[in-house]
Automatic annotation (TrEMBL):
Transmembrane helix is among the record's keywords: yes
Major place of residence: membrane
Protein name: PTS lactose transporter subunit IIC
GO biological process terms on file: phosphoenolpyruvate-dependent sugar phosphotransferase system
Gene3D superfamilies: EAL domain (3.20.20.450)
The EAL domain, residue ranges: 446-702
Domain PTS EIIC type-3 span(s) in chain numbering: 1-401
PANTHER family cross-referenced by the UniProt entry: PTHR33989, PTS SYSTEM N,N'-DIACETYLCHITOBIOSE-SPECIFIC EIIC COMPONENT
Keywords: Cell membrane, Membrane, Sugar transport, Transmembrane, Transmembrane helix, Transport
Protein topology in the membrane: Multi-pass membrane protein
Gene Ontology molecular function terms on file: protein-N(PI)-phosphohistidine-sugar phosphotransferase activity
Length: 710
């Protein structure tokens, strides 16, 4: 049952429009957080705090706060229109291809919204700009984007192609091509407004409120409460401020009784009943969700968001959870968002009816924190107990859905990560660097990964680590190792070094990464030598970009030799032959100086580039590593055998050592040894190992005791 539910909800969550709407709300996060915090400060029910603010900031401090509130939460319809239309437009092929600029789509949606709302005295009223206009803004944002793109695609069939053409600059030409699609889109919303005015449909909300007053507000009837709760939260889920629509009707129909002798003397289902016993943390009992997130998702972004939401949530301000998580348009939270207040209201209503807890008989400010509101509203500790029971129930209701959402999000993140790896391979093949400046999920993930790497450098808690693949002779005796960069991410698992290096290249932290790798690797080599394994050598890959751009490279290598007190002949830097190494005089000078320090230089992937011989001469190499693609088919391809034989012969003539990499079978070892290869590296002998396990491997297979090392 759970699996079936998860499958259905996952499909809904991945629906393009829903995904875009949720992303649009996330774009508003800074304004939502600012507005929520200001709202807490303005309504904080602590006289000492209010007096303090008055004394420190003066009488105008509330006006400052209100102006910030007006510029954040009170224009949410407008910001929603802008961010959602932007997010939706970014999903369109016309925008992805660059044919249409998303800004044009956004301003068309804004113009359509203003044409649609019914204002005669001003361009836009506070009602339409704030939360009351959210649903209209959502509908207009989605429909305007789709209509604009539809008309744009049909432009050649609707009007002559020469019309609104322009032979000037590209930006002006694009603007001319958008004239008719924008005009038709705005016209449709203007016409829709006139139609609604003609039919009188705009009075639907007033009619709905009157029906609630006359039909459902009976005070003691739980079915009226159930209707109110479901209606309120369904409206909330689709972006309509349910409290504005429903709660006004409740407060007008069922006033709080201030003097009662029994439960029968008072209407139970008052607005204060819901605020005190049901809406713990706001609509949807989201204080329970907030705690569930902190309990279940301790290392997630949602957990960090929950921590930010704690202060506003305590005071029943849950805009951060509603719009920032977001709950609205999130299929995973639809059920608990409705179910939690339904169950809590039933438990509280029954408890009041049978006399276990008192009814709420005192009006309490809606921002009063949980437990304090329970006591003030009922004048009894039983009110606090009822709130505690309901809070625990709401947490238990939300937890399974939080787990489902976590599983879905992990699956989504893995998919985005795979897309990122594919995109990096794509841009590498075309020598482009365009990942970090993308504004889609792939770009966001890339920036998040870079931020994690930078945090590791900054805090000296690097999440990257090194593993060491042994280099051996044909008997399996160890001569050294190659340091390999690894990242086992807690969410995405194994992150390819190709992804790491390309992201670092684009983020301009390649030099920092290279220095960290050398420092980490040579510190391990120092430890091995101190433990008695003083003939082991270690090679570290040198990025072409670091070689080209790091002006302090030679000094860094020199400092590591002195710092770690290692004989330089046991240290090796690897250059990849098929990488784009700059053959400039500056690069050659750096390599010559490094070679002068006694450091070995090797060429990785040797035999697959177009200039192998020149690499040996130009880059002062004294070690080559025969490419794995040559080794892989050496047992079946006579031509490749001859190529390898030629490479080995060349190495012998030039006094250059050769290592065959990618060795996976005994047969490959035997053929390579017969051809004259002395050293090997590959899965046949060992995969890459952490430092301690590498030493265990050395103890098991022995170490070559010789002066000349590889």
């Amino acid at each position: 049952m759970i699996e079936k539910f998860d499958k259905i909800v996952s499909k809904l969550a991945n629906q393009q429009t829903i995904r875009a709407v949720r992303r649009g709300f996330i774009y508003q996060m800074p304004l939502i957080i600012i507005g929520s915090i200001i709202l807490v400060l303005l309504n904080l029910p602590i006289p000492a705090f209010q007096d303090f603010m008055l004394n420190v900031l003066g009488e105008d401090w509330r006006e400052i706060g209100l102006s910030i509130h007006k510029g954040t939460l009170q224009i949410m319809a407008l910001t929603t229109l802008i961010t959602v239309s932007y997010a939706v437009s970014k999903e369109k092929d016309l925008v992805k291809s660059g044919e249409v600029n998303s800004t044009i789509v956004v301003i068309t949606a804004l113009a359509s919204f203003i044409a649609f709302i019914n204002n005669t005295n001003m361009i836009i009223s506070a009602e339409h700009a704030g939360s009351a206009g959210m649903f209209r803004a959502l509908v207009v944002a989605v429909m305007a984007c789709n209509l604009f793109c539809f008309f744009y695609r049909c432009r050649d069939r609707i009007w002559p192609s020469a019309l609104f053409s322009y032979n000037g600059g590209a930006l002006i030409r694009a603007s001319f091509r958008a004239v008719i699609p924008a005009l038709l889109t705005i016209f449709i919303f203007s016409a829709a407004r006139r139609m609604l005015d003609f039919t009188g449909s705009d009075n639907a909300r007033l009619m709905f409120t009157r029906i609630i007053n006359e039909t459902w507000m009976t005070g003691h009837n739980y079915f009226s409460a159930l209707f109110i709760i479901l209606t309120t939260h369904i409206l909330w889920f689709f972006g309509v401020h349910g409290g504005n629509v429903i709660m006004d009707a409740i407060s007008g129909a069922t006033p709080v009784a201030t003097s009662v002798t029994s439960v029968a003397d008072v209407s139970i289902l008052t607005k204060e009943f819901f605020d005190t016993y049901v809406y713990l943390g706001g609509a949807g009992s989201t204080l329970g969700l907030l705690i569930a997130l902190m309990l279940v998702r301790k290392k997630s972004n949602e957990n960090r968001l929950a921590k930010v939401s704690v202060l506003p949530g305590i005071f029943n301000i849950n805009e951060i959870m509603i719009y920032g998580l977001p709950i609205i348009f999130n299929p995973y939270y639809f059920v608990p968002f409705l179910l939690s207040p339904v169950i809590l209201s039933f438990i509280a209503w029954v408890s009041v009816r049978i006399g276990w807890v008192p009814p709420v008989t005192q009006a309490v400010e809606w921002t009063t924190p949980i437990f304090l509101s329970g006591y003030l509203g009922t004048g009894s500790v039983a009110g606090i107990v009822m709130q505690a029971v309901n809070l625990i129930l709401s947490i238990l209701i939300y937890i399974p859905f939080v787990r489902l959402q976590e599983r879905h999000q992990q699956h989504t993140l893995i998919t985005v990560f795979k897309n990122l790896a594919n995109e990096i391979q794509y841009v590498q093949e075309r020598q482009q660097k365009t990942i970090l400046n993308r504004d889609d999920e792939t770009g966001s993930l890339a920036r998040a990964l870079v931020a994690e790497i930078k945090d590791g450098f900054r805090n000296h808690t690097q999440i990257l680590h090194l593993e060491y693949q042994p280099k051996v002779n044909h008997k399996g005796e160890v001569i050294g190792a190659e340091a390999l960069l690894r990242w086992i991410h807690p969410v995405y698992g194994y992150v390819s070094p190709l992804v790491i290096l390309n992201l670092c290249d684009e983020a301009n932290i390649t030099n920092e990464l290279g220095r960290w790798v050398m420092h980490r690797a040579f510190s391990d080599l120092q430890r091995w030598h101190k433990e008695g394994y003083n003939t082991l050598s270690l090679s570290v890959n040198l990025s072409p970009r670091q070689l080209q751009e790091d002006e302090s490279l030679v000094q860094t290598v020199r400092s590591y030799i002195g710092w770690f007190a290692i004989e330089s002949r046991y240290m090796e830097l690897e250059l990849t032959e098929n990488a784009a190494i700059d053959p400039s005089d500056s690069t050659r000078s750096k390599l010559e100086q490094i070679k002068g320090l006694g450091i070995n230089l090797s060429i990785d992937d040797f035999g697959m580039g177009h200039s192998s011989l020149l690499y040996i001469c130009d880059f002062y190499a004294n070690i080559v590593k025969i490419d794995a693609s040559l080794v892989r088919t050496i047992t079946s391809d006579r031509q490749r055998q001859q190529i390898v034989k030629s490479i080995l012969s060349l190495c012998g003539q030039l006094n250059v050592k050769a290592v065959a990499e990618g060795v996976e079978t005994k047969e490959q070892v035997e053929i390579l040894h017969e051809l004259g290869c002395q050293y090997f590296q590959g899965f046949y002998f060992s995969r890459s190992l952490d430092s301690d396990k590498f030493i265990e491997f050395v103890n098991e297979h022995g170490c070559i005791q010789e002066e000349a090392v590889v």
